[in-house]
Amino acid sequence: MEIELPELDNPLSLFFLIILMNSFIGIIQMFFLFFLLIVSGIISGSEVAYFSLTSNDINILKSKNNSSLKKILLLLRYPEKLLATILILNNLINVAIITLSAYFAWNIYGKNPLVFLTLTIIVTLMILFFGEIIPKIYANKNKLFFIKISSQIIRYSFMFFKPFIFLLVYITKVFKKSQKKEFLESSQEDLNKAIDLTLSKETSKNEKNILEGIVNFGSIKVKEIMISRVDITAIEKHDSFNKISKLINTSGFSRIPVYKETIDNIEGVLYVKDLIPYLNEKNFNWKIKIRPAFFIPENKKIDVLFKDFQEKRVHLAVVIDEYGGVSGIITLEDVLEEIIGDIKDEFDNEASFVYKKLDPHTFLFEGKTSLNDFCKLSSSSKNDFKKIKGESESLGGLLLEINNKIPSKGDKINFDNFVFTIMSVDKKRIRRVRVYKKSNSN
């Protein structure tokens, strides 16, 4: 049986039918755009909701028996991926709203520039108010509500856009890594300049050094201030008690590393205080008093090391290089000296040479002096040697980088505003250097 459609011979009937169909299509289009605007608001509000959660809010979400919420909580462990998902989804929806609005307007009004301009302004304001501002204000006070209604959308969007999310996160990490170092260096320079501007004439040089030490504390690496392996005082594990007693008396150190056969094989640290009850014994088995050593990498920042010293309650760490060899040692005293300056105790030898100021522009340094100490003592900036220093962290190493060979006694090395005169040298390293620093007026 066939159904015959009524013939619309009357033009007026056909006109009303076209209007009705256009109105119906227009209503569907408006409804679809309104739906997209609501989803845009939900996603935009969820950004605020997720990244303002407190520990109490997270505990509440964990207590909910909802698998979707628990999976979303896993994303909170990777905030960069979660943020990338939200941003990709939100921007796609906003672009879809603008594109569809333009397409619908084109079908109804044709290519009318005035209509497109008016539409662009209206749609932009609607997205701004109903898709951004209002949802974010509301989400700030109703975080859990927004997380619940957006959890499914974000979870499926994360799975769908996973390749783009990983690419976006990777690009972000590369950019952050390249910018982080420059940002830290510029921030430290700005802070040092601020210190110079704010300090009064009554402020002592020691107080200024302490402030600068605090500013630079988080940027200094262990290898910049450690005691080099060639200067380590250590005990061989097979040494007799009598021999190590003499070494303890001559060195004056309270903690001494213990190695087996070579310095690269450090087995622990001997605390002198542990031997006090056995001083009268001749053949005491001192090896039973060896304590475990604390090993750290060269590139560890000293502010992190300081916390480690506090938590582990140790005062000495053994510094190792990338190959597992011993580079040197560092003590809590070395770390503190970066803030408060040189610390002298009753065991320090006053006669031992470290640094002398001969006149306002001339200094005498040991070649093993760290670049960090050299810059502080000569009132120089580490940036003066940034391009030339390479991997060297000592004054002697810097001069080898500049000269490209071990210089002879009496050789002069010119660099920037400095004239370095080699005062003492052997076949392996530079021992003593006279430094003349030209004034800016010269």
In summary, what is this structure?
The protein has helices at 11-50, 55-63, 67-75, 79-109, 113-141, 143-160, 162-198, 205-216, 222-225, 241-251, 302-312, 332-340, 371-377, 395-403, and strands at 227-228, 235-236, 255-260, 262-271, 290-291, 295-297, 316-320, 326-331, 355-359, 362-366, 412-415, 418-425, 430-437. It has 442 residues and is α+β, with helices and mostly antiparallel strands.
SSE diagram, text form:
Layout: H1 11-50, H2 55-63, H3 67-75, H4 79-109, H5 113-141, H6 143-160, H7 162-198, H8 205-216, H9 222-225, E1 227-228, E2 235-236, H10 241-251, E3 255-260, E4 262-271, E5 290-291, E6 295-297, H11 302-312, E7 316-320, E8 326-331, H12 332-340, E9 355-359, E10 362-366, H13 371-377, H14 395-403, E11 412-415, E12 418-425, E13 430-437
Parallel strand pairs: 2-3, 6-7
Antiparallel strand pairs: 1-8, 3-4, 4-5, 7-8, 9-10, 10-13, 11-12, 12-13
The low-confidence runs, each spanning 5 or more residues with pLDDT under 50, are: 1-6, 10-20
Query: What is the typical, i.e. mean, pLDDT?
Result: 77
Secondary-structure element string: HHHHHHHHHEEHEEEEHEEHEEHHEEE
Helix-strand makeup class: alpha+beta
- Computed CA radius of gyration, to the nearest angstrom: 36 Å
Strand-residue fraction?
A: 5-15%
Distance between the termini: 110 Å
Percentage of residues assigned to helices = 40-55%
Shape annotation: elongated
Instruction: List how many beta strands DSSP finds.
Output: 13
User: Mind describing the biggest β-sheet?
Assistant: 5 strands, antiparallel
Quickly count the helices: 14
Number of domains: 4
Strand line-up across the major sheet: 9-10-13-12-11
